[in-house]
Amino acid sequence: MIHDTPSRDDSAPMLRLGWEEWVSLPDLGLPTLRVKVDTGAKTSALHATEIETFGRAEKPQVRFTVHPIPGREDLEIPCSADIVDRREVTSSNGETEHRYVIRTPLEIAGQTWPIEITLTDRRGMQSHMLLGRQALVDRVTVAPGERFCQPELSYEVYHSAHVRTAAPNRALRIAVLSREDNYSTRRLVSVGEERGHTVEVIDTARCYMAINALAPEVHYDGKRLPRYDAVIPRIGASITPYGTAVIRQFETIGTWCVNGSAGITASRDKLHAHQVLARNRIGMPATAFASSPKDTGNLIGLVGSAPLIVKLLESTQGRGVVLAETRKAAESVISAFRGLKANFLVQHFVKEAAGEDIRCLVIGNKVVAAIKRTAEGGDFRSNLHLGGKATPVKITKEERETALRAARAFGLNMAGVDLLRSETGPKVLEVNSSPGFEGVETASGKDVVGRLYDEVEAQVRPAPVRRRRGAQASES
Questions:
Q1: Which CATH superfamily is domain 15-166 in?
Q2: Are 421 and 429 in contact (CB under 8 A)?
Q3: Angle at the Cα of 438 (from 415 to 408), degrees rounded to 5?
Q4: Does domain 173-257 have CATH number 3.40.50.20?
Q5: d(Cα 353, Cα 105) in Å, to the nearest integer?
């Protein structure tokens, strides 16, 4: 593959470079690098470790780690870029290797032009970047006997918040843990790829784990899964225990997960979830749980008089939820559930909600969309899967704050919080750690998945990673 030598605007002033200069690679999130200018070398080279390809075959990308300060292995900058070529390069000591080539803007003294750089391990070299003659445009002169002809920069920038705020969004490698080819999964893939990321759908049930102290791994279809920047869990209720174990493994490796295993586990167990809400003083319908069949009368009394709700702990999408209109009906339902040895709870029925609830979609620290779900045909359950209708709704400040507090109580970065409008304020019915996107996006007209990717990018964008020096010493 042949690439033209980059050229600059003729109106730009002549740049005089010494054999050593300070430069920036802004698109890689590297605001300052000290480089060796070597006209004897044809190709520029950047010190990179953990080099790994990803992306589609028609548009391959490479991710890598840069240590911008020589001798500081504890400071790491994660980078990624499109691959423009793969070349055989012979170094000054006569060794030949195949290197990935990327193209990125180079900035010196306020002037910027694109250059091609090969990625290689330059560990032990005094300069972590070599600037070859291909990168030196026709209006650049080199004075081999001089150094720092252009303004010097400082490594101090890597110790400030500037790097995080100034660093560009890089292409990410993201795993979606899902067993279903549904609207939500397809949207996560399409929106992620539109933003230039690589999104891979992983069947949670086909993952298996190597659990050890030194090198924990996740395997899939006979191969070790690569490093992901982020994991978006879409764990079905039927495999919650195994799915959360897989997420814990990713957490052990150090991968950022949109929702953590602990929050998913707590939200899926309805009894546990109500205890979390109660501990955080978040409004919910009066709820009671018991194991002994002798306590039926007292159990009903704890939540008030009929009508009331009897709900299986493992119920999803409105299934396993029964409205008992009278005390006698409630006793019959409870007796039947106990005969099946099913775990359930009894809950006060909020009559004034009139078969309507509010689904608030929380991402990060914001409610990004809200819809009102209305039951069909006199049903008290408003779930869309059971035929309920969804319409956009304007929520109150109190409802917004309740939804945010509920999501934070479970440590969830993404949650569907279901609220009832009662005479005494909003009551949380459920906190869903894998909310569907179709009903919310269709009814509200909001790009919910796009907002989710905003959160993912904000969490895992390039930023200095300082490893503990003790950990570094133990590796050497």
A1: Acid Proteases (2.40.70.10)
A2: no
A3: 5
A4: yes
A5: 58
